[in-house]
Specification:
alpha/beta; Udp-n-acetylmuramoylalanyl-d-glutamate--2,6- Diaminopimelate Ligase, Chain: A, domain 1; Alpha-Beta Plaits; six-stranded mixed sheet; five-stranded mixed sheet; 11 strands; about 15% strand; elongated; PucR_C-HTH_dom; CdaR_GGDEF; PucR family transcriptional regulator ligand-binding domain-containing protein
């Protein structure tokens, strides 16, 4: 998943004598480009994932360094490299603490390093990795769209993933994502990638079919859930006006079954948006797992209206609250006392209502077989409303 801070450090630790000072939780931050800057003006045009490099010439005071770090954090930069030994000799402790707190990688290289050579080196690696990411994305989309045609994707993915191992799809979306123009969506994509902590080359992130897609290979399921929650937290902190929703599909062995995980993640992210719930795991959704994967929405609508339309019409005309009463009755397996307690209603009133309800729906609701269609109808109603 892109050229990361980790990749850079592995190359630069010896070649450029690079040292990692702070912000280690941003170790897996992706790098979109490398900028040399001596003031903060250009940061206003950052899209996200930019790596900033500076000699410190334009930041003579501690307050200047803190302002720089805040601006980089605000504009979703992937990290900061300081060229020490000429204009700055000692990195302020406050700067280190801020970078640790905000997971902003802070690194140094000595003055003897030729920054132009280093920046060129990193920029070429970013470009090459971007090309590789495009090929990976195309192959993964082929695996999702045409899983039976393994020749179109398996060989391509073999050099990047354990294609026989486990795969799991995580989808991220927000209101209006599909309506965004390409530039706006790309910026948001870059920013979200900065929030995806501690996941590097065993995953791929891209936009597809109205969602951001994260395909994870050989990643523990619990880790993926924690990653989703962490991404939501970071997004809420750094982009408070944005509400992200995450759906997590089932874990499946072999890339040939990636499409199954994707379709289930699609259902889960739909559930997340419908319920306004930040993270939904498909495997924990009970009967909704079946309902959200039904390909014909008209069938669901029919199963709802066939059972509940008469009661809904009666409620609209008489304000009787019969739909709510029936839902509680089914929830409590026919216990009149439990329904009375939940609805704060006298037991005799519940008995009277249930008598009328049974006449309207023309069912006594005495057996599990009689109750099941109405229980499913309420599931569908809750899903579609």
């Amino acid at each position: 998943m892109s050229f990361t801070i980790e990749d850079m450090v592995l190359i630069a630790e010896k070649r450029y004598e690079m040292q990692f000072l702070a912000g280690r939780k941003g170790w897996s931050n992706s790098i979109s480009w490398v900028h040399l800057l001596e003031d903060t003006t250009i940061i206003q045009n950052f899209w996200g994932k930019e790596l900033a490099v500076t000699t410190g010439l334009g930041f003579p005071e501690k307050e200047d360094w803190m302002y720089l770090a805040r601006q980089l954090n605000r504009h979703h930069a992937s990290g900061l490299i300081i060229n020490v030994g000429q204009y700055i000799f000692e990195v302020p402790e406050e700067l280190k603490a801020y970078c640790d707190e905000n997971d902003l990688p802070l690194l140094t290289v000595p003055w003897e390093v030729h920054l132009s050579d280093m920046i060129k080196d990193f920029s070429i690696r970013v470009f090459l990795q971007d090309n590789a990411d495009e090929q990976i994305m195309s192959a993964l989309i082929s695996a999702i769209e045409t899983p039976d045609n393994q020749e179109s994707y398996r060989k391509e993915l073999l050099q990047y993933f354990d294609v026989d191992g486990s795969f799991q799809v995580l989808l991220l979306t927000c209101e209006g994502l599909d309506a965004m123009d390409t530039v706006e969506r790309k910026k948001l994509s870059y920013r979200i990638q900065v929030y995806l902590e501690e996941i590097t080359h065993n995953a791929s992130f891209f936009y597809y079919n109205s969602d951001f897609v994260l395909v994870a290979n050989a990643v523990p399921e619990e880790f993926l859930y924690q990653l989703a929650e962490g991404t939501i937290r970071r997004a809420n902190r750094r982009m408070p006006g944005l509400k992200l929703y995450v759906g997590i599909g089932s874990r499946r062995l072999d890339v040939a079954h990636l499409a199954v995980s994707y379709q289930r993640a699609k259902a889960a992210v739909h559930m997340a948006m419908t319920r306004k719930q930040p993270v939904v795991k498909f495997d924990e959704c009970g009967l909704y797992r079946l309902l959200y994967t039904v390909g014909d929405p008209e069938i669901l609508q029919e199963m709802w209206t066939e059972r509940l339309a008469a009661l809904e019409d009666y409620d609209r005309e008489h304000r009787a609250g019969y739909v709510e009463t029936l839902q509680s009755y089914l929830k409590h397996n026919g216990s009149i006392q439990a329904v009375a307690g939940e609805l704060y209603t006298h037991r005799n009133t519940v008995l009277y209502r249930m008598g009328n309800i049974k006449k309207i729906i023309k069912s006594n609701l005495e057996t599990p077989e009689e109750r099941l269609p109405y229980q499913i109808a309420f599931y569908i109603r809750n899903m579609l409303l």
